[in-house]
Write a structure and sequence with these properties.
alpha/beta; Glutaredoxin; globular
Length: about 170
């Protein structure tokens, strides 16, 4: 019985350790970001319905990407804090393209995440982690990236971000 409990504790600790840590060890620690602050956001990710979001099409609004991992507690907290900070937690901000991008998982997990955490904005998947590694070369979640139509990429943070930090670049969320 003690052996079973020890295995459970070990499995739980391994699960927790994925949050805020590297998702895999296949990258060189000297990898350089493939973007520059001020450049236009590019790339895409997949929504659960199979549609792709092309980041080049920002509709003249700031874009906020919240890269999250399936079992990352900090990622869950960040998404819930953004949701709870909205005037109506069931309606996404109209003046910002807000997306959660699940890293290294199929679209079905993105849909589960959206449902489980009651997120009113689009939640998509980056199953091959290409977009994630383009903007978060440290390979660590959570990672948040902000792009404005006028100034390009203006903010990137590897750790939990707060709405107040992001609104300095996007303006107040409505």
């Amino acid at each position: 019985m003690a052996s079973l409990i020890n295995r459970f504790i070990l499995a739980f600790l391994v699960l927790l350790s994925s949050c805020g840590s590297q998702l895999s060890k296949d990258l060189s620690p000297n990898r350089v970001a493939e973007f520059q602050f001020g450049e236009k956001m590019r790339g895409s990710f997949i929504l659960p319905n199979g549609n792709q979001v092309q980041l080049e099409n920002d509709n003249g609004k700031p874009t906020v990407l919240i890269f999250s991992a399936e079992f990352c507690g900090i990622c869950q907290s960040e998404n819930e804090n953004f949701r709870d900070s909205l005037r109506d937690p069931q309606v996404p901000p109209a003046n910002v393209n807000l997306y959660t991008v699940m890293v290294g998982v199929p679209e079905s997990v993105a849909q589960e995440w959206k449902t489980d955490f009651r997120l009113p904005w689009a939640v998509g998947a980056d199953p091959r982690r290409e977009l994630f590694l383009q903007y978060c070369p440290e390979n660590i979640t959570p990672c948040t990236v902000v792009h404005t139509p006028k100034d390009g990429i203006v903010y990137r943070k590897v750790d939990e971000s707060r709405r107040e930090e992001i609104e300095k670049f996007t303006g107040p969320w409505e």
